[in-house]
Amino acid sequence: MNSPKIGKGRTETMMRVQVRDFKRERVLEEATKLFYERGFQGSSIDAIAERLSVTKPFIYTYFDNKQALLVALYERAIGDLNTGVEKIFSVDHTPEEQLELLVKFYVRQNIESRELTAIFLNEERNLSPEILAEIREEHREFDRKLTNLIRRGISSGVFHVEDAGLASLSISGMVRWVHRWYNPAGRLNTDAICQKLATLALNLVCYEPASADPSRGEPLAEAEPKESPGAPPHKKITARAKR
Fold it and tell me: Which pTM value belongs to this model?
């Protein structure tokens, strides 16, 4: 049985970790806003510190430099995408169900994290060649998974598109730029946009049910699929930002 002193020490350590994580998260939140508003080149550590009402050394406690902040945001964008994709693929769905769920998730992510999406698409030129290569390989892996899903649908006789790879890139491109035109006050809410773009994706792959199924009249529910216990975590970007 642990002594009270040991238990207290563990609690204090956990609290210190939580406080550190919270402070690091606040730095990332303000960096996201600033990079989105001014661009990476138009932003500075001084400006981030000013917004947080802290000193520059406070920022450097968590990040070596401004590029390290940018790399952390790219890691977050890739990590969020990979986590959501793994959850969807961990559940046994038909190809058309999986494609619909995947597009809905992807659209929602780009709407709800549109500042991060804009940074991801606009700031590649400010990454080192090594880090940029890792980022692009991570995204190619997503494209491969989507392509393989479309090929599975073709093999199952429900998708009738000729070029699975081109269809994959077309769907990804359609969804990636949602953040540019999305308007919170527009005529379509987030749920409606998710459903309509999922339908467009199914049309793009020429979806036709293998047999008459009256249940297809209702859209798929966006149930949160359970993550597979053996699902691998997303790969962390290993290249270091230059000081």
Answer: 0.77
Q: Where are the domains of the chain?
A: 1-63, 66-243
As given in the structure block, the two tokens for residue 112 are: 């709800």
Q: Which CATH number fits domain 66-243: 1.10.3080.10, 3.30.70.360, 3.40.50.880, 1.10.357.10?
A: 1.10.357.10
Alpha carbon distance 131, 71 (integer Å)? 8
Distance CA 86, CA 234 (A): 9
Quick: pLDDT tens for 66-125. Answer: 999 999 999 999 999 999 999 999 999 999 999 999 999 999 999 999 999 999 999 999
* Buried/exposed 210-241: b ≥16 CB within 10 Å, e otherwise: eeeeeeeeeebeeeebeeeeeeeebeebeeeb
Q: What is the pLDDT of residues 160-201, one digit of tens each?
A: 999 999 999 999 999 999 999 999 999 999 999 999 999 999
Classify 1-63 by CATH class. mainly alpha
Q: How many helices (DSSP H) and strands (DSSP E) are in the chain?
A: 10, 0
